[in-house]
Amino acid sequence: MTFPGQIDIHWSVLAPAIALLVTAAVTLFIALFSRDSRGAAGAALIGVITAGVFTLAQLLSGEANAASFGLRYLGDVPALTLTLVILLGTVAAVLVSWDQLQRGGMEHPEYYPLMLLSALGAVVMASAGDLITLILGLEIMSLPVYALSAWRTRDRQSEEAGMKYFLLGAFGSAILIYGAALVYGAAGSFVYGDVAAALSSGNLTLLATLGGALVLAGLGFKAALAPFHQWAPDVYTGAPTPVVTFMTVVIKIGAFAALLRLATVVFPALQPWLLTALAVMVALTLVVGNFSALMQRGVKRMLAYSSVAHAGYLGLALLATDHGGVAAAAFYLTAYAFMNAGAFAVLSLISDANDHGDDLERFAGLAKRRPWLAAVMTLFMLSLGGIPPLVGFAGKVLVFQAVIDAGYVWLAVLGIATSIVALVYYFRVVAYMYFRESAYEPPAFRSGATQVAIALALAGTLLLGVFPGWWHTLLSAGPRLLAGL
Amino acid sequence: MIALAMIVVPLVAAALVMLARRVLPLARVLAVAGAVATLVLAIFLPGTRPLDLTWLPGIGVSFSLDGNGAGSVLTFAAALMMIPAVLVATTRVASGAAGFAALLLVALGGLNGIFLAKDLVLFYVFWEATLIPGLLLLGIWGGERRREATVKYLVYAVTGSFFMLISILAVKALSGAASFHVIDLMLAAPELPVATQTWLFVGLAIGMAVKLPIWPLHSWLVDLNEQNHPSGAADVLGSLYKVGAFGFFAWGLPLLPAGALRVAPILLALSAVTALYGAFGAIGSNHLKRFLAYGSLSHMGIIGVGVFGMHLAGMSGAMYFLAAQMVSTGGLFLIVGMLYHRRRSLYLADYGGLAKAAPALAAFTLFLIFTFIGVPGLSNFPGEFMSLLGAFQTSPWPAAIATLTVIAAGVYGVNLYQRLFQGRSEAVVKDLDALEMYVLLPVIVGVLLFGLMPAPHLQRIESQSQLAELQLERAAAAPGGITLSDVGGAR
Known about the structure:
heterodimer, A: mainly alpha, 74% helix, B: mainly alpha, 20 helices
């Protein structure tokens, strides 16, 4: 459909986002009339699955090539596949919340509309083809999560998490917007393709470089790349576990989806030292994330730092976008979504109603009392550590292969060296579960929702680990809407 | 398809064993059936068509398995030893026996993958995957200092294999090979400059040397054996883990021959040192499992000498020895488990004079000790002899040093038997019971089979050795290449 003012709108491209928006409105409406959050959760699940069906339909229909608003909102393979993963992560988060909200006394039904809006923002970021769309997506994604991370209102730690996240998040957004303005000043356009064309045609000014650097820094905040990662551990530790499940998966994908586009299209047109700066950031992230995770006693905090570390592995792929890095990063994000959501889902079952007691001691002897839960957690830990034949391994191999192909052998070596460190802290959880005794009895299960989330995550971790080929082929194939992708 | 079944069948058996874990007799039957089925598959494996499925086509990784060559012999030995191991596990392990047996079967599936993989990344996948069952067996059922032993094993193995991973990924990127399949890599990788090959080979070698294992990267092995469950079932797995020599033989030498020619002299020297060090370690041990760990370390040194001698006979012999020692070392570990079952001790000092009360046990032990120290006609002899013989052709000095261990083996072997079974003792111990007979039966069959009929197995190994030798000769003949005789002595 084309409007008189040459605005092209492909409804099929927008359908997933619209489905999420409508669902958010519906759940808000349900929340008005019912204090029980289960209704809203059910509606949210239906809405997210509907959005997923729209995305899948478009991906498989062969017209995964459409854009709206003149390449400002894209519906190509990277956008659609990442949208799917975002939706999967949202499903997992909703399922985990189903049990935990009631248990933790956090049952305000507005929870789900906020989560859906944030997922919508992430979808918009994954589809963004220009800086304005990106910023819109970023704000839609971020604002609800600031509130969600302070959801346990009577808990100081949660409150602090919300506050910290809000302040630093706003700071990051401001840097990003400022950078976008400078880029516009230099290139005369917000659309990625135009920006790249303008910059590579010799108009590369200090303005553009500074703008690019600020955009990179702003997104670095959101993606928790060192040295802009400091908020992440505190926020992840303080926020309720279901919210963290959502954050580590959905927010991360949103941020990396945007970074991937920029790394493919815009960054190469900027000064080469920006890529070097990115490489240094990635190296720093790998070291800081992994070594900090090694020091932690609390599992949640360990996972928080490890999520910083995983941002580093994803960052490696950003540097190799010409050598299969886009597909590698998309695969890694999928892998990460499954195994991390699974780990947090298990964590939410182990900790008590107030989310306290996620320290290692709580895992001691779990293998005796809950053999299956321990076995599943073991698989998630090993997958996060990159042990085959689990999905984390396939993700790491793809990323390392891409970065070696791109000529950054030193980064691959660093990545692998830090992987060894990572395995030590992941295996520590396994060791506590199997090799130690403890009298701690984790609370009984409430309903099957969290188990369903764990089963989903487990299926993804195992199936994509043993059969990684088809998903990677799908990620690598298909048309790319912007030059260079 | 048989090759694929050799990986899938043990895994399925493991899952069934876990499902039946509350009914131990059923779990035992399932576990043994899984191991027997794998052994039957291994017998029919040679000569089957290779399997080639796409796996990660985006970066050229395929799911390729081939049951010809040295792998077929090693899978046979591994499957054979798994039968007594699961039998012991499900009868002698007090708590969680089914889980124990299931982990053994999972490890068997992974080991078969290592031996049969024809794609380098796939090989790495199985290489890493076998780590986990071993860690869990040690960590859950191990002795008092199991945690330290687990961490040590984890750190050694993971550090080594991650270096390997860099080399694996880089070898394709640098050589421009079409895929990670062994044929594509063998065509492209030997064309790389010598310097490049050398650092790639060093990367591979760090990972493989840990699992050869070679001095000074061996110390995880002794702790692993010492802290493993006293039944010896987990130690059978430990003796199957020593797959580094196979890695060098099947991948390192043929893919990066010029690099191998550069680095091999160092590895050869280290192997000779390992052989001698292991022998002295065995002589000096008073702990049964440490004794066996050191003794088998000495064997590993000889295997290393055979491989890095880079002579056809030596390489073939080393692979044969590797398979044979899986049987003999595993068998002795099971005997140690039986001794522990009787006297609740692993220290030699607590034993002596058992031959009177348990003549059958003494006879079987003597038989296995003879095998262990390489008496002709039994399984270890052909491989050990050929390893040393081959190495003498190219590198007399390291081979001569390693040969000294044959004398040492006689000393520590006879000494062990004496201290266990001879002398005076009033102790009343049970002789072998029916179960233990069943446990030892496959071991004895394997020892005799490998000892008396080496030809069919050796032929299959040699077809692969010739390929490795050809690659090495080509690299040596290349302009500026290093000749084989530079490695040591005249050829």
